[in-house]
Amino acid sequence: MDNYDSYESISARSASSSLNSPSILTPATSSNEAGTLLDQSSIARDHIFPLSDYLPIGCICGAQALDIERTSEWAEIHQIDLVADFDSDQSLIGNVGKLLAAQWIRVTAGAPSGHIILRIYVLPDDLGHVTIDRGSKTLRSAFSKLVPQLDVSRKTWKGHPKHRPFDRWATPVPHSLFWLYNTLPSPTPSETRIASRYSRLPVSQLLDDEPYIPGLKTRLFRYQARSVAAMIEREVAPRKILDPRFEPRMSPDGSEYFYSPKDMVFRKKPTCYEGSRGGILSETMGVGKTLMCLTLVMATRYHLPRTPPQHLRGPALRQKVGSLSQMAGASLGRHSVSAKAHFSWFHPDDDLIRPLKVIESEWPSYEIPIESRRSNRTTRSIPPPPRRLRLCSATIIVVPRNLIHQWEAEIKKHVYDGADGLKVLTLKDNTQQLPRASDLLEYHIILFSKSRFEKEHDDGLDSQGRTANFLGTECRCPYIGATRVRDCTCMKPEDIYHSPLKDLHFLRIIIDEGHEFSTKTSRAVVVATKLVTAERRWVVSGTPAKERLFGVDVELAAHAMTENYFPNATKNEDHSPSDMRGAALEQQSLFVSEEERSGAARPIGILLSNYLQVRPWVSSDGEDSLAWEDHFFRHEHVTNKTYSAFSLCMKATLEAIVIKTRPDDVEKDVVLPKLDHKVVYLDPCFYDTVTTNLFTTVLTGNAVASERQDADYLFHKNSVKPLHDLVVNLRRSSFFWTGFTEKEVLDVISHGLTYLIKKDTKCSKDDRILYNQCLGFAETLFNSIGWKALSATHEMGLFVDAWPNDAASSWALNGEIVPPMIGATHLRAAQRFVNERLSANDPTDGLVGRGLLELKAAVTTSEITKASAAVPDTKLGVPSSGLRGASGSSPKKTRPAVQDKASMNTALRKASIDVELDQNSSLALPSIIGTTSSKMSYMLGRIMALHTDEKTLIFYDSDNTAWYIAQCLELMHIKHLIYAKSLRPEQRSTYIVAFDTDVSIRVLLMDIDTGALGLNVNKASRVFFINPPCKPHQEAQAIKRAHRIGQDKPVFVETLILRGTLEEAMFKRSKSMTREEHTHADKELLNDKGIAQVIQAARILPIGGQDGLGWRQMAPLDTSLQIFGRKGRADMKITGIDADDEKAVNGTASKRKRKETSAGENKPKRSRKNATTAAMRDTDASSSVAGPINMEESASSLDTNMYNTEEWTSVG
């Protein structure tokens, strides 16, 4: 150990020292050694704490080497001015003197290499609060100036200066949160850390080579079992967590101390908190989080929460001496031991069954005293009794409304029924009442929909929303008439709703898709934190910070192409999934301040400090909460937040609360099928090109007429809403669009021409050239009979071949032009007309007349609807239709099937159901050979090729898109469902379960904004994106609906893009955007300047002179599709879907009919035809010519004899 000289020896020598002295500090010689020891003993009495209690922090070095005697001995000094010729900053030396005198520090000196070196020892904050003045601002200022100037190099400490300054700020972690999250270690639970045998036993079974929990049907994978075991371990044996204000650091001499960067406080011993009894189960999407939660509940089925220590009481006094069973039950309750938990593992003998019932009747509880509110003159306060909480072994699970049926299906799938299973109470609807608290004790799971859970926020309110503060001292309500009876509306205590949840101390609460709880004030969070008392709290989410934090495998799902991570890889070079993940992590490994300060750290911090109630982020026991933002980041300023990097606190916090298995460890147990994701570039057909050019013409017309300035210009800062609506419709139009009418296009051209002929305009030469190109395109457009017909009827055009003789012109939208183009609605009507007459001598008899009626109805109702359509605020040169339908759901169109009742009879229709056409029949020849949409033709071809062997999931972003595809699927008699945003939550859940269990349903159309999160659609192995999502996380989330555990086929994903269009340019820009740019753009893609520039740079696409004529105008199908007599037409109803939807729609129609009758109107009623119409008729949107339109309002203006009042057909 170091040798120290006495205070007197140093004083004597320093008096005669000089710059050229051979020695500046010499240890005591042997002649006065005894005297030195005596002197040191007397000095020690002057110091309150011995030097060994101080922390060695760093050194101060002299600036120059001196010609002095070099020695390896160190001596303690007690006055800094006793060190001769120490040529260092005098202000620094002054601060050392102040702190030395106040005993904040101790100093030893030496000169092993010719430099005078002072070793600084700091008194830790653990000591000296009473005897040492810690509150002096002068000393604190001196200390804060001294410490950053210390040299903490180990070599300097040993006497060989090598400058390494003390870092006063938090130790930086120079990685992104994405990197930290994805490099968390996989859970490694151990049963030896668990004291309770009732918890240790299931953990032991989970960690066995063959994991097993009684009552569970499903065999767990090992990684699933480890995660559940880690959850149990964290619940019953939480580890001690270092106070996040402190971080461990190493002294120059190799010892450890603890340092708080924010307050510059040093401690010798760590301050710890008990870890959270819960956390975030953040296993990646599709690896079985629901099963893990059910296993957790099964493994701890009868366990009880602990009575809080502050509410523990001794044995209760009884009126009479209790039986041994009663006393045993009471004792078990005080120690939170459940007899049921014991006997669930160790089955009782028959003679113990009766005492066991007595023991179970002694249900444990405890009381919380409540302070009375003060009364005033107008209100009275009823002294409240102590609040009694009963310990409850149930688990509350809160799930999004659309997932509740999926949870019920998972419970049925994984857990046995009966006594060995789980007793579940499901609360879906807001009208369902909670049972009494005593009844809730009997359940293992209380499954809430989120909306029903929020309903418990009404606790403490009456039906009028009044609180107990409205309890008056006397009734002052008015009298009834001339009587002396009051019409009393006063609030009464019995009117106040009391939630049964308040009366129980639950074992656990689990929030599925818990990233939605990353808020402080939502009703659900308030109920979960203020109303529910639960010992263990879990969030279950593969994306704990929605849209900001997710697993690297999800990142790969959105960017599965090898060239994204290995740009120099050869075409045949193969990379393992582990290599791909490593490359993806490397690309996003660095900390970017602008991204992280407003990124995923914020929702994580809010979860900790609110719902999860993790100390010290939440106040408890009189201790104030900490601001997580102060400690999660490295801030290089005393008062300001600089967000220079993450701190060790962030890393430690993630490790303490998140349970997540690394993908490499998951793959040791289970390997998901291959995921193949490719972008399919399609050449736009004539009508696709027309649509793209129409939007370019509108954008150009606006730019020219507004001179690219002022509020009329779409890209002006005050035109955000109109530009947003136009661009949304622009993106949707890449599938199909009939929104602009001929008149609207003429108006756009007229606006531009009127402007151009004016004098002194500011139109640039480039704008004039571009607008002249638009004029040339308009001439081609107005010559297109097909486009005019589609614009007038809003139909998806289908080109047919070999149509029955003499009937083509009566059905075709393009007249006599070959090939005939028939609207999808009309073709469906023609198909039904012929199919219902296949047993007749001539099934086509009356087909010509029917076609004429169909066309008449389409054109008439379209004109009526246009006239009544609401006109939104528009911009100069922009048609109003271009701004409709973008903000909400797309409009819908429903039209009655034109039908000649006299020619129809039930017997003929039934006889025709099973008729199969002969291969040589003329009716087997009519077929669809193309469409007016390249994407529709491609999708129709792919579905027909795949539907017999694989189920298909199609993501869309416009209801019109889903409607058009559904029409074609109906034509092909392929069963399908539409998971639309307009569906009620219970319908959504039913649709998912039906698609999972009904093998006859081959296609699921899903709104990407509604269905990209939380759903399990692993029966689909083909995934299509009709339009490319411009949010990478949304695309990845959508893909993981299918690519997850339970998927037994390779998953093939295709994103469709029209080559050479604005869609392609926007897609490429989106893929090139950085994380920071995506974060900045957030929900509005136009917030990105690059996207705005792409749209502003739009140009007219060339159209050949013959492109709009004949066979060249269509997007051809690879294989023609037969129209009449197709198989499957007799069985298009979906079990469990159509019957319920028909009842719902008929009920709505009946109400509407009664209302219309009272108003003197006679409109035909609607009924549910199939799953498609049910999904779309619920859409609530205004009518618009921007796509399919609502024709219901105009039905009464047509000849009612033309319609079948029992059935309506749905059209796009």
Question: How would you characterize this protein structure?
Answer:
This protein is an alpha/beta fold and 1212 residues long. The protein has 42 helices and 32 strands. Strand 27, helix 35 and strand 28 form a beta-alpha-beta unit. The termini are far apart. The N terminus and C terminus are likely disordered. This is Helicase C-terminal domain-containing protein. It comes from Tothia fuscella.
How do you describe this structure in short?
One of its GO terms (biological process) is DNA repair. With 1212 residues, the protein is of the alpha/beta class.
Write the layout of secondary structure elements.
Layout: H1 7-15, H2 33-46, E1 55-61, E2 71-77, H3 90-101, E3 105-111, E4 117-122, H4 137-146, H5 154-157, E5 172-173, H6 177-182, H7 197-206, H8 222-236, E6 240-242, E7 247-250, E8 256-260, E9 265-267, E10 272-274, E11 278-281, H9 289-299, H10 324-334, H11 339-345, H12 353-361, E12 365-368, E13 387-399, H13 404-414, E14 424-427, H14 437-440, E15 445-449, H15 450-455, E16 504-512, H16 523-531, E17 533-540, H17 552-558, H18 577-587, H19 593-597, H20 601-609, H21 628-632, E18 633-634, E19 645-647, H22 648-657, E20 658-659, H23 663-666, E21 675-682, H24 686-706, H25 720-732, H26 742-756, H27 765-782, H28 785-793, E22 797-801, H29 808-811, E23 821-823, H30 824-835, H31 847-868, E24 893-898, H32 906-912, E25 927-931, H33 934-946, E26 951-956, H34 959-971, E27 976-979, H35 985-997, E28 1003-1007, H36 1008-1011, E29 1020-1025, H37 1032-1039, E30 1051-1058, H38 1062-1072, H39 1075-1081, H40 1089-1096, E31 1115-1122, H41 1138-1158, H42 1171-1177, E32 1203-1211
Parallel strand pairs: 11-17, 11-20, 13-15, 13-16, 14-15, 16-17, 21-30, 26-28, 26-29, 27-28, 29-30
Antiparallel strand pairs: 1-4, 2-3, 3-4, 5-19, 6-10, 7-8, 8-9, 12-13, 18-19, 22-23, 22-25, 24-32, 25-31
